[in-house]
Inverse folding.
């Protein structure tokens, strides 16, 4: 069976159970759709862990995949025969006997001072702690030199980092004006928040991606901008893609890295089932998965319109939705999965909590290029400072979209198109 956007139907194995999935879906989405909720356990107290952001930024979804530990289930596509196991758990992530640590040391465990009254017991305790701690087990086999990726050089006019609405629009604008344009995006499929917002949707993401390719943009998907090296050859951006490493030289750079989905401060906000609202939207919009029947959206006023759109889409899909202001939220309830939210007005029963917070600008890369940033609570964190044209404080480095302050997909796309055109003009004919 082939659904153009979902990809080919494949079979994967999670915790030794075969499940049916789709090639363009992440393992995290396939796991949830098949009823697997807990993916692994936390390092110390073995608390249940699962995905939060679905964008590769929170590390809540680490699994052992094909014998390799600590891979992000939300950034790994479903390939036929993939073997996925939880980690930091015995015998399984769902039923972890080591979770007894959390009960035995309910007031916290300082392993540095464990049983220090007796040197024999202390040695024994250290041995046990060393056995139990660590993040996953080492890979079954080491990487051989022949498996190391090759390095390729790329020289372009414009390099756009980030393939969300702003980045795609900027790349299209630059390419349409005759500039050799490279776009780097770390997600499974470019589109960013377009794929999580019911007002835009998966089709908009697919058509915008196709428009970029039609305009002549070279798109590197599943590729991460690792770092900028100013001392190297006049400035090189290192990029890791599934096939090879790239050293990119560009006449102009555009940071369109958007913002990270972040959690909000309330008790027990690390319970599985407390998920970023954008991830809940992504499951629904991108994968057609309704992640809960009773959804409680905990929100801040700055994103009320986004929360409203998500609530309407969830309601339309058949979920019961309650919206609660963060100011009224006391804490989440539940253990291996959330089952309610305590508020100042009483308890809300739910099987999913969607956290609607202002995304925090992903400005680290631009900071590495020396761009000025400013801490702006209304922008969700350190946003890149730009002038009216979108130019940062560093020559030939530009920025657009949410990384300059939260805008949402529609305004980010407009901003990207404008900045992309400005960059093309700055480079001349
Ligand atoms: S990193 Fe995978 S859910 Fe956040």
């Amino acid at each position: 069976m082939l659904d153009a956007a979902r990809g080919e139907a494949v079979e994967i194995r999670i915790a030794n159970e075969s499940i049916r999935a789709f090639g363009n879906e992440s393992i995290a989405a396939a796991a949830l759709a098949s009823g697997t909720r807990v993916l692994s356990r936390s390092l110390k107290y073995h608390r249940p862990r699962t995905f939060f952001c679905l964008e590769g930024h929170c590390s809540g979804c680490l699994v052992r995949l094909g014998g390799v530990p600590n891979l992000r289930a939300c950034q790994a596509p479903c390939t036929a025969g993939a073997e996925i196991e939880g980690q930091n758990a015995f015998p399984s992530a769902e039923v972890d006997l080591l979770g007894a640590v959390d009960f035995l040391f309910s007031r916290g465990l300082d392993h540095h001072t464990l049983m220090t009254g007796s040197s024999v017991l202390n040695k024994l305790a250290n041995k046990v702690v060393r056995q139990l701690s660590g993040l996953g087990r080492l890979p079954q086999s080491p990487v051989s030199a022949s498996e190391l990726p090759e390095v390729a050089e790329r020289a372009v006019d414009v390099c756009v980092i980030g393939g969300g609405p702003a980045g795609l629009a900027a790349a299209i604008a630059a390419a349409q004006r005759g500039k050799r344009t490279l776009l780097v995006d770390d997600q499974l499929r470019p589109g960013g928040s377009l794929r999580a917002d019911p007002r835009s949707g998966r089709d908009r993401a697919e058509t915008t991606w196709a428009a970029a390719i039609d305009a002549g943009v070279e798109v590197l998907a599943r590729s991460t901008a690792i770092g900028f090296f100013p001392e190297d050859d006049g400035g090189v951006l290192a990029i890791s893609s599934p096939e090879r490493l790239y050293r990119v030289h560009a006449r102009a750079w555009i940071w369109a890295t958007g913002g990270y989905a972040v959690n909000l401060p309330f008790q027990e906000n690390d319970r599985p089932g407390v998920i970023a609202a954008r991830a809940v939207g992504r499951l629904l919009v991108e994968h057609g998965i309704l992640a809960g029947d009773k959804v409680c959206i905990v929100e801040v006023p700055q994103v009320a319109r986004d929360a409203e759109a998500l609530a309407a889409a969830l309601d339309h899909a058949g979920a019961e939705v309650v919206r609660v202001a963060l100011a009224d939220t006391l804490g989440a309830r539940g253990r291996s999965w959330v089952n309610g939210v305590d508020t100042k007005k009483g308890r809300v029963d739910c099987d999913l909590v969607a956290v609607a917070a202002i995304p925090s600008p992903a400005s680290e890369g631009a900071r590495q290029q020396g761009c000025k940033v400013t801490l702006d609570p209304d922008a969700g964190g350190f946003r890149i400072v730009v002038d009216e044209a979108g130019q940062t404080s560093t020559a030939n480095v530009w920025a657009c979209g949410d990384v300059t302050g939260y805008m949402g997909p529609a305004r980010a796309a407009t901003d990207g198109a404008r900045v992309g055109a400005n960059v093309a003009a700055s480079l001349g004919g």
Observations:
- The chain has a mean pLDDT of 92.
- Residues 28, 51-54, 56-61, 72, 74 surround FE2/S2 (inorganic) cluster (CB under 6 Å).
- The two ends are 48 Å apart (CA to CA).
